[in-house]
Amino acid sequence: MRETNEFIAVKKKEILEQQPLLEESTVKNTKLMAVLKVRQEKAGAVRVTVSAQETEASEQQKVAAALKAEAHADLAVAMPQLEAAEKALQALDKSSINEIKSYANPPKAVEMTMQAVMVLLDEGKYDWKKAKDLLGRGEFMRLLLEYDKENISKHIITKLTKFISDDEFTPEKVEKGGSAATKVLCIWCHAMYKYYHVALVVEPKRKALEKAQTELDATNKKLSEAQAALKAVEDELQVLQEEFNTSVKAKADLQESIETSKRQLGNAEILTESLGSESERWTVQIEALGKDVAMLPGDVFLAAASIIYFGAFTPVFRTEIVRQWLDAAKAAKVPVSDNYSLVRTLADPMQVRDWQIHSLPTDVTSAENAVLCLASCESAKLARWPLMIDPQGQASKWIKAEQSKRGLKVLKMSDPKYINKLGTAICNGTPILIDDVEETLDPALESVLLKQVYTVDGEPMINLGGGDHAVRYDDMFRLYLSTKMANPHYLPEVCIKVTLINFTVTMEGLEDQMLGDVVSIEKSELEEQKSAVLRRVAEAKKRKKQLENLILEKLESAQGNVLDSPDVIKTLERSQTNGTLLIKQLAESEEKERTINESREEYRPIAKRAAILYFVVADLPLIDPMYQYSLDYFKRIVRLIIEQSESHPTFAEHLTALTEAVTETVYRAVCRGLFNRHKIVFSVMACSAIQRGAGLITAPEWAVFNRPGSFVKSDRESKPPSLAFVDETAYDLADVLTRTIPAFKNLIPDMKANPDVWAEWMGLEEPQNHAFPKAGVDWDTVLTPFQKCLLIRCFREEKSSMQMLIYVDSTLGSKYVEAPAFDLKQAFLDSAVDRPIIFILSQGSDPTEGFLKWAAEHGKKVRYVALGQGQEGPARRLIEGGKKMGEWVLLQNCHLGKSFMGELQETVAGLDPSDKMVKEDFRLWITSMPVDYFPIPILQNSIKITNEAPSGIKANMTRCFNEMKEAELSTFDDGGRWRPLPSGKPKSYAFKKLLYGLCFFHSAILERRKFGPLGWNNKYEWNDTDLIVSKDWLRLFLCQDDVPWDSMVYIIGEINYGGRVTDPLDRLCLASILKTYFTPDILDDSYVFSVSGIYKAPPEGNLDLYRQAISDLPRIDEPEMFGMHQNASIRYQFQESSILLDTLLSIQPRASSKGGGPSPEELVKQKAQEILDILPDLLDLETEAGPTSLTVMENGVPNSLSTVLRHEVEKFNKLLKQQRKTLLELQKAIAGLTVLSEVLDKMYTDFLNDKVPGLWASVSYLSMKPLGAWVKNMVQRVAHCRTWLKNGEPEAFWLPGLFSPHGFMTGVLQGHARRHLISVDVLSFSFKILPTDTVESGPESGVYIKGMYADSFQYDRTRGLMADSSPGESYAPLPVILLLPKEHHKPPPSSYPCPAYITTSRQGVLSSLGASTNFILCVEFETDLGRDYWTRKGAAMVCQLPH
Question: Alpha-carbon distance 672 to 838, whole Å?
């Protein structure tokens, strides 16, 4: 364009300079024209004269030519014969002539011929001799051939005539009478004769021709002279004409030059005007392209790295890894764009818009995924087909729309013929989508995935199915694979064959989709306009791009000067006109789009809420694999809510109502398919996600809530004495809150300033229900509801679950705290032919009976089958029959039909409501325990319902008696048939009391499980079968004359219920509990089951009376009902809170550095270094062992405790080596120096979650402590072991510090046995509880142990008896205990054998002796309350507390 503007200036100057020259040339041409006219008239006169002479010469030439032609025609008559004669003469040779000469007496024909020849040669009178002489002449033949035929005399012809007229003188006869030579001579004579006569006719004509030719020559001479004169005149005229033509041409050239300049000037102005806007765009683009070209090496490198590496990662990780790549590239001085983007580098905006029209989500991540997919398919060098992680089906939907024009085929690996179909597609070049692949791929795809194409006779071929099926390979073939698994784990051998692309929907993309769905229902016309405008904008931009390309193409392809190309100029002018109109239309469309978007944005809050809720729902499978919900299913719920919504007075109210309706409906729809323990988790997840989306919960707050331990500093300041009531773990978390969250910056200062206020609040039984401290800072008003959860978790973690309920209640409302009731009717209404209903089972629950009853009430016939071995066929037939007849089909216990799951998935996928072969009344009902192999597609699009066993004594008792019939209760109501008991009570009275007690016992042992290890060491799944069998035993026992109490307790407690119990101590507890209900005292109406007096067996009555008594029971069961201390509630609450917090943590991604905090890598690296800094050195038996550490007894037998010490040192060293090794490897892996293996990655995650890594736990002692506390405890243990190693046996052994307490106990017994030379088999421990925490010296016999804790009791040192725990203190330190080995020791009856455990979980692996590996031994404590009292309380000793 700059050149064009310069050209315009030059041309204007040229036109001004050329105009005078043009005028001068015109005058000169006029003068030359006058002279030329005179010369032309003169030349014209000469030309007339010459023309007349040329005419005359032409006439004469015609006459001569006619004469010449006529003569030639006459001569032509004789010429053939003459030529034949000459040819024959030439053929004669000497032998032929000699043949004639050889005649002595020549025949007549020869003689006649020679006479004729001699006449023509004028040889005189004939005689044969003369004839022979003539023949013998050497010149004979020449004479004949050169005979002067033009001048034959008349007298010769006269003589010759007699021969010619003789009939015998013909060539044939002469030849017959003579020879061939005489024939030739005869022919020659005839030819001469004939030629003579022709020449007589031709001669006059020849003379006339000569005369005419003479006259013609004279005329031509005159003509030549005239022509010469004319040429001279014309030459002169030519010179003058050339001079004139040159002048005229010069003028014309000048004129054309001026016209061309004017035309080019006009075209240049048109070009300038047409391309003015393009010039600006080109200027910008050239500048941008220049920058892009400069940055091309780095951008292309990052794009290649992105294609190869980051496809499988989440958007957050992609952003982080690209940021690191950018930093590294800049550090290495590689030119790279600051705003590098994979989409910007490898995709065209028009192409991206086209993808989005074909259902690709509009977020950046989806566009990146599309680029990755395209690069994988179109790059011959990459050679890796895309495998898309597509749990929501977004990728499949886009691929189907994008490739539909190419005839895309969708296959599933479950299709038995899919390999054949794949081969057909490869041969035809048809794209294929293999949907729903699992974590392993079919080996038959190996050659396709690796693109193992080879050539046969120039034809590309590929083998399928392991090499036995070869097909022609078409280069247009494309393969796409997708999986519905949200978090698949593909082995490396799979990853290297495909390009993994994470198509999991993003928040941004889903929000836009949900907005479209909401608007399409609320304002359908607006969404239609939006779609239409989007298409118009896309089309307009496409046409605009085409016009821009056309302009460049025309300019590039123009030959010569573009200003001389009218077609190009017209095209450019037309393109510019169209482009201007197009820009206007595009601007109008974009303005319309902006207006529409503004209107659509009003519904953004609903879309955002729906998107947030979906991502909460999408995390549920991380809790339980059965909690699967597809995006389509979720969208269907949201659409149904919007469609059924009512109008409101104002739009704001309508928007609020819709948002609330979406939240509540999704909550109810999802909650009905969750187990009770997970419903509150879902409420907290939803509530916190909504608040995080609104910015009401910051990233640091959420990170500290989930992973507080990862922020604990090992070098924090010491806790002041004034805060002694705060344990170390709580103070660690308080320090974290003070440092990391601005709202808590004054927390520790306020605690130091007002310790009494904080001590009072922390000591409250229910602190969450009271106002928070209001001393220096009014924490009750300063903190948000979620921040209060942080504070409760810090100081009273057991109350966290309750505080979270308060948080949800205050944020969303009470309806999100109370789980919706079991509603089978609503589940059925939400179902469809292709949407089955799944009952997710739990232990002790079976919905079949209730479901069949409900179906019968609604007049529905149900056909059902319980899956298991060999039941696939009946299930298949039931489904087919149900579809045809419109019946309900129930498949029970699908978890037992694993082999049938694949077929069931295909069957459900094939259910189509539009299929006329499937009746609309058909429904498929399924029951299954949670299993990870249940088909995900079925789960994602089904209605899920959980039906758990009732919770609480009241609920369990209600269930027991609701299922009971009056006849069962009245078994012994015989009116005198049964003999009364010895006490005088009727059998019916005893049966009803004991039946009620049995049901209460069943309910109590089930509910006791909620207290965790305090209730039972292991979890036992008792069910209704145990109760039914026990009822049968009860009836059987009561048929006897008296009640066999001991037999009943043994059969029901030890065999029936006890048969499921694996822990001996649990079996003792079970028997103790049963004796509460199976005791003669129960026959007394005043007998109660607990000290409160609330729980007791009602007086004898009918079924209604018992049901009424049950209905009066409290809804919440206090611990005293189970014989436990009130502190058991704290343990239960702590357990519930731990489950809630651990579940929330389990679904969290790794911590991020959002909010300016340290990154996960920095946190882990820092923690690893802190541990390395305090990690003790290895214990050295050679250099550190003291003189009294490793000894032998006087009798030479090794000291057993020395052996124990050696084992302890060995085990601690093994642990320390593993720690140091893995810590260094982890640091190297974080720094990128080594590969982060799977086990190191798990260790990395454990560090973030403040958990002891599995790599350490596998070689460590039992512990439940979090990582920080565990490390401190480990250092103390090693220090204790080192002290023992250096100084010998301590006065009192710190039992919790030993690696193996079991080995220590065995060593003590063995040492005593060896010292006193007795069998160790007869030894056991007796115990003495000292009233002190320390001792000055060791015992004479046995060992002292210390550091143990009492669990659910405390030791009264004054009385020397066991006592109930203090309120709020579940654990109490125990004094020093003497373990004294004795032979055949028998525990005193007044003692309670208190079990000692390593951890509070009390759970371990059963040893060969039937005891748990967590169990150490039973210590005898004196008690005045009886053994059963403490057994039901769950009293025990533990080596270490959880924190």
Answer: 11
Q: Coil, helix or strand for 987? A: helix
| Angstrom distance (rounded) from CA 409 to CA 566 | 51
CA distance 223 to 230: 10
Handedness of CA 1011, 1016, 1018, 1022 (dihedral sign): negative
Residue that has been written with the tokens 């009750």 in this structure: 780
| Tokens (6 digits) for 1044 | 């066999």
Distance CA 750, CA 592 (A): 58
DSSP state of 1375: -
d(CA 1426, CA 1392): 7
130 Cβ neighbours under 8 A, 6+ residues apart: 118, 123, 124
Q: Quote the radius of gyration of the chain (alpha carbons, Å).
A: 59
**Do 453 and 473 form a contact (C-beta atoms < 8 A)?**
yes
Give, in degrees to the nearest 5, the angle at Cα 500 between 495 and 502: 145
**Paired strand residues for 1326:** 1380
Burial of 279 (0-12, 13-18, 19+ CB in 10 A): middle
SS (H, E, C) 1314-1371: HHHCCCHHHEEEEEEECCCCCCCCCCCCCEEEECCEEECCEEECCCCEEECCCCCCCE
β-bridge pairing 1292-1294 and 1343-1346 = parallel
Which segments of the chain have a pLDDT < 50? 1153, 1155
Residues 6+ apart with CB under 8 A from 556: none
Cα–Cα distance measured from residue 999 to residue 1003, given in angstroms and rounded to the nearest whole number: 6
Q: What is the pLDDT at residue 1023? A: 84
Separation in Å, CA 612 to CA 91, 361, 508, 922, 1148: 122, 17, 10, 34, 15
Query: What's CA 336's distance to the chain center, in Å?
Result: 27
- Which pairing describes strands 1343-1346 and 1415-1422: parallel, antiparallel, or unpaired? unpaired
Give the pLDDT score at 524: 72
pLDDT for position 614: 93
Nearest Cα neighbor of 299 from 336, 246, 248 is: 336
- Are the CB atoms for 981 and 1082 separated by under 8 Å? no
Q: What share of the chain is helix, strand, coil (3-state, %, to 5)?
A: 60, 10, 30
Is there a contact between 642 and 521 (Cβ–Cβ < 8 Å)? yes
Q: Which residues contact 203 (CB under 8 A, 6 or more apart)?
A: none
Where does residue 868 fall: left (phi above 0), alpha (psi -120 to 50 degrees), or beta otherwise?
Answer: left
Question: Collapsing DSSP states into helix, strand and coil, what is residue 740?
Answer: helix
Distance between CA atoms of residues 189 and 163, nearest Å: 9
Contacts with 1032 (C-beta within 8 Å, 6 or more apart), sequence order: none
Strand-strand pairing, 1377-1383 and 1323-1329:
antiparallel
How far is it, in rounded angstroms, from Cα 995 to Cα 896?
A: 34
Other CB atoms within 10 Å distance of the CB of residue 1431? 21
For the chain, give the longest Cα–Cα distance.
Answer: 201
pLDDT of residue 434: 93
| β-strand partners of 1397 | 1415, 1438
Question: How far, in Å, CA of 330 to CA of 301, rounded?
Answer: 13
Residue with tokens 């080192």: 1282
> Is 0.85 topped by the overall pTM?
no
Nearest C-alpha neighbor of 962 from the set 1113, 1110, 821:
1110
CA-based nearest residue to 526, from 573, 589, 596: 596
User: Residue 478: which residues within 8 A CB-CB, separation 6 or more?
Assistant: 377, 385, 403, 406, 431, 432
Quick one: pLDDT at residue 64? 63
Closest CA to 995 of 1085, 1086, 1058, 1077: 1077
Of 1085, 1063, 1133, 1136, the residue nearest 1436 (C-alpha) = 1063
What's the pLDDT at 865?
Answer: 93
pLDDT of 381: 54
According to DSSP H, which parts of 910-1023 are helical?
936-940, 953-962, 966-969, 987-1007
